Amino acid sequence: MAAGVIVEALGPARAAALAALFDRDGSPCFCRYWHFGGTNKEWEARCAERKDESRAELAAAIAVGSEDARGLVAVRGDDVVGWMKVTRRATLPKLLARFPYRGLDDPGDVFAIGCFLVDPALRRDGVAAALLDSAIAHAPSWGARFLEAYPRASDAPLHEGELWQGPHALFTSRGFVVVREASQYPVLRRAL
User: For the segment 131-172, what is each residue's pLDDT rounded down to a tens digit?
Assistant: First the structure.
């Protein structure tokens, strides 16, 4: 893993540094996709024209300790260099409405890994693995009995922008198993 990186639960003290990570990456979503109620076209317009709305929503959710801002941050010095949303699956309404994930069984206390973001300068340096290992260790203290992941699968290599839900191989290397097979969007789960 990248030298000097620690992983901790996101709290208000890291809100500005997390927003700075989204800015460094050029990512306008500010981890609001799963909570946005509009269409995909409306989401694209928001990302292109009104990213400050997403930034403000994330800041407000962090400030009040909302479940929709729950996750882990990888920190080096004062900088957040990695983020992983990990929260109760039920708090991701858009996920549950998407075709590949409709009607998922509920074994109880399932937490979803909604996304990853790693500083472009530290990709392929073990930050995502550190975040996932920390989620496996930390999520039970939040009430999780299972972690679920939704990586994109492809026979062709994916570019970094397509790996925002995490790399499939990382999950399987940590004991996640496929619970719903789908050509592009399998569902993987691990008991805790």
Answer: 999 999 999 999 999 999 999 887 777 777 777 888 889 999
Domain residue limits, the chain: 5-191
* Cβ within 8 Å of residue 49, ≥6 positions away: none
CATH C-level class of 5-191: alpha beta
> Which pTM value belongs to this model?
0.93
What count of Cα atoms within 13 Å lies in the side-chain half-sphere of residue 107? Answer: 13
Alpha-carbon gap, residue 64 to 161, rounded angstroms: 30
